[in-house]
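This part of the workshop introduces the protein records we will be handling. To make this concrete, we reproduce a full record directly below:
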Amino acid sequence: MRLFNTTNKWKNWWINRKLDWKVSYLDNWDHPHRYLISALLSRLQWISLIEIGCGAGANLMNIIKNLPGKQVGGVDVNSEAIALAEKTFKHGVFKVGSAEDIMMSDKSTDVVLSDMCLIYVGSKKIKKYLLEMKRIARKYVVLCEFHSDNLWNKLALKINSGYNAYNYKKLLTKLGFYDVMLTKVPTESWPGGDPQRTFAYLIVAKVPKI
């Protein structure tokens, strides 16, 4: 049962997942919610961006089509996904690895993006993942993740899907981020129903300079 999937079990599931990354992910660069991510990014001041759990780079493709001139890259545990991303984005920086230990130097990118990556991270490790994002980011973290401030709703989500939702306003503030802003993803921007249509939020938080 997915209810009992730990962070490491989910990680291994993605590491060993075999699929056509171009058809299943990269070709879906125009999914409606990706335009919301690009629109949010267009309102921020930045040049470079790293996406954790980037897969083959569907979000990155949407970003460079809508925001030309940006430097993009990503980290993912699946080596086949990263191989396709490296082939697609000739000047991007891509690494195979876990977002809990990103092989990048401190303050090495303006923005760190996560889109439905942290839903696989359990409560014992979520702070570690967010602190690692904070470590490499100069300006912002931008999340499209499952948010809820209701304990019972989070528990029901975990039971029904195995996914994790967090109170990101509270959690990010506690970890030293500031100006945390949350926006519910409109239902029309996520065709296909729940749990995304209930729990998906766009979240942007500023990273302390020191």
